Amino acid sequence: MSTVTTQDGVQIFYKDWGPKSAQPIMFHHGWPLSSDDWDAQMLFFVQHGYRVVAHDRRGHGRSAQVSEGHDMDHYAADAFAVVEALDLKNVVHIGHSTGGGEVARYVAKHGQPSGRTAKAVLVSAVPPLMLKTASNPEGLPMEVFDGFRKGVAENRAQMFLDVASGPFYGFNRPGAKVYPGVAQNWWRQGMMGSAKAHYDGVKAFSETDQTDDLKAITVPTLVMHGDDDQIVPIADSALKAVKLLKNGTLKVYKGYPHGMLTTQADVINPDLLAFVKS
Known about the structure:
By secondary structure, the protein is of the alpha/beta class. The chain has one domain: Rossmann fold, CATH 3.40.50. Helices cover 44% and strands 16% of the residues. The chain is built from ten helices and eight strands. Strands 1-2-4-3-5-6-7-8 form an eight-stranded mixed sheet, with helices on both faces. Helix 2 crosses helix 3. The longest helix has 24 residues.
């Protein structure tokens, strides 16, 4: 397996496909998944001549199941460790859900200062802040995230199956076309990871205020979101994020779910390609 060791000694698994001389696109997965969630995009872009890179976040997939560091700062630093080890330049970073938060923190703290980032894409992403607070009344109440933690602690196998079979891909909507294999693959990815990483990760994706990260980003950034996202509601994420970005563009997909990268890849992939080429 291909791995990079971070400054704090954590082994991060990564995939690196395509010509090493081509422009790199790096993918950042959501909670509680792995780089396998990007199969549809990685195959698409490698077939279009790009170099594609994706890693498993610490505690997820095939990366080390360490006890500590399950927060946005470490997520971003781990991604930078992969970028530096592979000496990636002029990179387009694409993040989904929690991975979108990772991208925002990465670009603001590492990607732009190092001059290695060309563009960014936030897909169904968590920034600026998911949690409902006095200054963020549109957010979700803490009880929602406590429910995720309770599910991970008590029976994450069943919770993961319920999330994947229901709201994540919109399979719970009337008339939805259901793909059991997609739900099973989501469950498979989740169960490969560490319960500790998943438990701690809830705080990372729900309570991290990334307003300043978004304000700091100057590279062209595409914000993509389905308006029927039941996991990360659009009103408290994409609609706010695009207003904070200096060079942001918003694309809303009517009726699309949180997991649209998989179930609507035939629409999303060409849109991603058009942005990368623009």
